Amino acid sequence: MDSWLSIEVLDGEFAAHSWQRAHGDNLTEAALTHGAEQWTWHVHRWGVTLEIEFATEAQRDRFRGLPAVTAALDAVPDPEHGLLVYPGRGGGSGSRVPRRPRPLPMAGAGAVPTPKEEVRLQLATGEPPMFQLSSSG
After folding, report:
1. CA angle 60, 66, 71 (to 5 degrees)
2. Do residues 73 and 85 make contact, with C-beta atoms less than 8 angstroms apart?
3. Is 13 helix (H, G, I), strand (E, B) or coil?
4. Which of 82, 89, 123, 137 is the most buried (most CB within 10 A)?
5. What sections of the chain are H helices per DSSP?
6. CB crowding 97-127: b at 16 or more within 10 Å, else e
7. What is the C-alpha separation between 99 and 11, in angstroms, rounded?
8. Model pTM?
9. 62's torsion region: left (phi>0), alpha (psi -120 to 50) or beta?
10. d(Cα 43, Cα 17) in Å, to the nearest integer?
11. Are 15 and 78 in contact (CB under 8 A)?
């Protein structure tokens, strides 16, 4: 059974892609030497994500505890709020395929309902309506 590990790094004091350039090779080397079968980097407008596949959960957990991995994670741009590490891929769903983002609801995306016309009925009286004749002259 495949065991994925996702590491999401958000922009902070500096850009996350700078962190990727500085620590990406060390992370992928550590992953490969500790049983990783494949890995992929995703660059987003808000940061980067590294997804690594291991054959077993034990290999994944050993990788997570390596000093090189700990040092790289300690050096993220925003150590307090800019790091997410979780098992699985695609938002922690644990699925083999990452989830795709749904379209955002936008103004004008749906038709505006047409207003209902108010109809008023009155009962007719028994007298004919009065007409005024105008004289033209």
Report:
1. 125
2. yes
3. coil
4. 89
5. 16-33, 57-64, 67-74
6. ebeeeeeeeeeeeeeeeeeeeeeeeeeeeee
7. 22
8. 0.63
9. alpha
10. 7
11. no
> Would you say the C-alpha torsion 35, 41, 42, 44 has a positive or negative sign?
positive
**pLDDT of res. 22:** 93
d(CA 130, CA 81): 81
Q: 54-57 contacts: CB < 8 A, separation 24 or more?
A: 54/2, 54/3, 54/4, 54/5, 55/2, 55/3, 56/1, 56/3, 57/3, 57/87
Task: Give the tens place of pLDDT for each residue, 33-72.
Answer: 998 999 999 998 889 999 999 999 999 999 999 999 999 9
Judge contact between 60 and 70, C-beta under 8 A: no
Q: Write the secondary structure of 68-93 as one string of H (helix), E (strand) and C (coil).
A: HHHHHHHCCCCCCCCEEEEECCCCCC
Phi (first) and psi of residue 18, to 5 degrees:
-70, -40
The Cα–Cα gap between 9 and 51 comes to 12
Tokens 């994944």 label which residue? 60
Residue that is written with structure tokens 């995703």 in the block: 42
